[in-house]
Amino acid sequence: MAISSTGLGSGLDVSSIISQLSALEKQPLKALQSKATNLQTQLSAVGTIQSQISSVVSAATKLGSVLNWKGTTATSSNTAALGVTAATGAAAATYSVEVQKLAKAQSVSLPTGPTATPLPTATEQIGAGTLSIQVGTKAAVDITINSGEGTLAQIANKINSTSGLGVSASVLTDGSGKVNLILRATDTGIAGAFNVTVTEGAGVGSNLSRLATANMTQNQAAQNAEATINGVAVTSPKNTLTEVLGGLTLNLNQVTTAPVEVVVAKDTGSIKKNIEEFITAYNTLNATLSDATAYDASSKTAGPLQGDSVTNGLQRAFRGLLSSVNNTGSTFSRLADVGITAQLGGALSLNSTKLTAAFSDVENVQKLFTNFGGTDSTNGFGVRIKDFANGLLSASGAVTNKTNAVKKAIDNNATEQTKISNRATLVEERLKKQYTALDTKMASLTALNAYVAQQVTTWNKSTG
């Protein structure tokens, strides 16, 4: 009779025995699984460090780039009269500006008053013919007004739909049912002035000639802007001067009664902001490195990279670099000279008062960060830090190598766990086969024993 459940033949708790023996085979898995958890924590920590070093690279790149030191600011002592903006690279200087005239666009309209021809109604036909409009020295443009197209609104629409004309038209209602036509130059300045001549149509009663500029009232004459800058006279067809002073845009808003002072200076505010962003990026990295390598005696808890030579070496290298002396040709040789100092624990702090004082010689502050001498000792701090941090992240850099080493350890750990699991499975299968064979043998012996016992009993009865 076949044994269907291991242990029935032998009477042993075979399942428990096999389970315990299999567990013994899998015992090394616990250590490997614990190590795998630690390795994943290390990988996460290294990934954070890698990301934060990238932030340091970005911040150092800003400090090391000459372009980021070319920013300028421009201020006006009377912004209501004169606005000013500075482009990157504008030279630091002070200017005295006076505005005598503002640029204006020519504007004309139909005359009004007791002796003037009464204004037409909105539906009244002025007439038909051709308006010839010439702007400045450009060729005149003819606009045909056909019969039935001569209301002021229709005429204004034809003028406004003529592309590139240089004149715009609008219709103004005077509140009594009468309308007026206003023609205005698109551009300010004398070059934008226009003249309208009319060829009257053949229709009876046509009076299109009312729209000739000679017959209209000039509300505003075309005028160029006039100003003096440091005593030098300048003129412009526009109130925005972009080519008078290199890198500066002057916006003329009002005629002045007193000189307006324009001051162009280095944009030290942006430079300070870049320095603060670098300090923030570095301090974040420094805190992560400290936490990752620390040991908390009270909780007896070690950081994920505690004792790791690469991480400890990285922190020491950064601190050494930031406290080093550079020979950049600047009057400043250390970061501390411009107010950037390391505190207990390695975090950087900024003395704004000292930095502001250093900005009185901003060119030498720039050299401290941007100089490129070709060697570590002669390169500016921005250049050096960027190059050092980029090296850590390169294909053969320390951080990249550390990342790869942890990943390899994780892979090896997974391989070992698989080996142990597979070996435990094989042992379990072998034990099941062995105990199944034992059960079968024991069952056979038990059956034989019962048979023999039965025969003995029968024999004893027959001989009794």
Automatic annotation (TrEMBL):
Q: One Pfam family of this protein, by short name?
A: FliD_N
The protein's UniProt keywords, in alphabetical order, are: Bacterial flagellum, Cell projection, Cilium, Coiled coil, Flagellum, Secreted
InterPro entries the UniProt entry points to: FliD, FliD_C, FliD_N
- The UniProt record lists the Flagellar hook-associated protein 2 C-terminal domain at 222-446
Domain Flagellar hook-associated protein 2 N-terminal stretches: 10-106
Q: Where in the cell is it found?
A: Secreted; Bacterial flagellum
Transmembrane annotation, as ranges: none
Keyword field contains Isomerase: no
Q: Which domain of life is it from?
A: Bacteria
Known role = Required for morphogenesis and for the elongation of the flagellar filament by facilitating polymerization of the flagellin monomers at the tip of growing filament. Forms a capping structure, which prevents flagellin subunits (transported through the central channel of the flagellum) from leaking out without polymerization at the distal end.
Listed PANTHER family: FLAGELLAR CAP/ASSEMBLY PROTEIN FLID, FLAGELLAR HOOK-ASSOCIATED PROTEIN 2
Question: Which family is annotated?
Answer: Belongs to the FliD family.
**How is this protein organized at the quaternary level?**
Homopentamer.
UniProt-recorded name of the protein: Flagellar hook-associated protein 2
Q: Which species is listed as the source?
A: Rhodoferax potami
